Amino acid sequence: MTGRPRHIGAAERRARLGLRQRLAGAARAAAPEEVADSLVALHGTDPATVYLAVGARLADARETVARVERALYEDRSLVRMHGMRHTVFVFPAGLTAVVHASTGLDIAAKARAGLVKDMAAGSGGRLTEEWLDEVEASALAALARRGEATVNELTGDEPRLKEQFAYAAGKSYEGVHTVSSRLMRVLGVEGRVVRGRPLGSWTSSQFRWAVAPPHPPLPPAEARAGLMDRWLTACGPATEADLKWWTGWKVTDVRGALAASGAVAVSLDDGVTGYVAAGDEGPVDEPDAPWAALLPALDPTPMSRPDRDWFLEPALRPALFDRSGNVGPTVWWDGRVVGGWAQRPDGEIVWRLPAAGGVGREALDAIAAEAERLRAWVGGTRITPRFRTPLERELAAE
């Protein structure tokens, strides 16, 4: 593209969001894999988020739990693993090699070096890198034999996983770490193990572990360009600051990936420069009709970038985010966040619209229908976000 960059205003950004993020009615997906592929990554720190984020985007959400579980634990078309910012996500299986090479390698090297250093210092030199290599090989062999296993099961096969060492002696946060918990995390970011089926229901945070499926090694720069192209297609336009935040990469890596992927610069509101994927700089059609959605805490749409003013009024932030910047459950109307929701102990889905001044009867009816749709497929399961926010707490207690 030559000449001045094309301008993409807030209205067009909201239209792209509704269509690309599978939120507008006609854009909803037929399968969990389609949702994950469209979003690139489903935030997995809170296990319930994966299911709720998928259910909100399926045309038919009635069997959301069974379909997501089948994709994760039977078909393995979706994989739960560490990714950007050292955070757990659920990715399409075909993207795991790209994520690992673009992001995981640097994180993994630092995580392993940190474990070796902390383990030696906290054990008086008793637990060495060579010792860890032996324990690791034994644990991975046991995991391969079992197929899936909890940490407790693995420690039965390899008792040395129970070894402990002091951490941060003399600091305010000093404590005792167990080799098993640190080692499994390192193996996770190295792409050698993944989380398997949970011990409890789909909302449980206690997971079994499994040996990661093999994937081909990729040159990191090539992988970063590939991931950049995928993310801009799903979420663009985005600023350089958005991209650095989402990936956790260095600025030089972000700029290199933008150049290598052929990303195109566009103009955003307030004179800000953004980027879209190559060939995606043209205008997009509006969704066929206004849309409503109830998205869960940590949903990838509001959590995909730090710049949210074009879809979220700053006045709503204190009620919808915790002190660490984690978003709670949100209510959307036609590309904007207009409120929040929660589930009461009796299972009722309740919502409030602090920004309801400009929301009419059509919106209220559509939001009520989404709340009922959510209640119907969640059934008797009780959902409490892992990171609770002021409005969610207030609504849940009413």
How would you describe the overall organization of this protein?
- It is a single chain.
- Helix 5 (96-122) packs antiparallel against helix 8, helix 5 (96-122) packs across helix 9 and helix 9 packs across helix 11 (251-261).
- With 398 residues, this protein is α+β, with helices and mostly antiparallel strands.
- The chain has helices at 10-20, 32-39, 47-55, 64-73, 96-122, 129-146, 151-157, 179-189, 220-235, 240-247, 251-261, 317-320, 361-378, 390-397; strands at 42-43, 78-82, 88-92, 148-149, 164-167, 175-178, 193-198, 207-211, 264-267, 273-276, 292-295, 330-333, 336-343, 349-352.
- The model has no long low-confidence stretch (mean pLDDT 93).
- The strands form 5 sheets. Strands 11-12-13-14 form a 4-stranded antiparallel beta sheet. Strands 1-3-2 form a 3-stranded antiparallel beta sheet, with helices on both faces. A 3-stranded antiparallel beta sheet has the order 4-8-7.
- This is Winged helix DNA-binding domain-containing protein.
- InterPro entries: AlkZ-like.
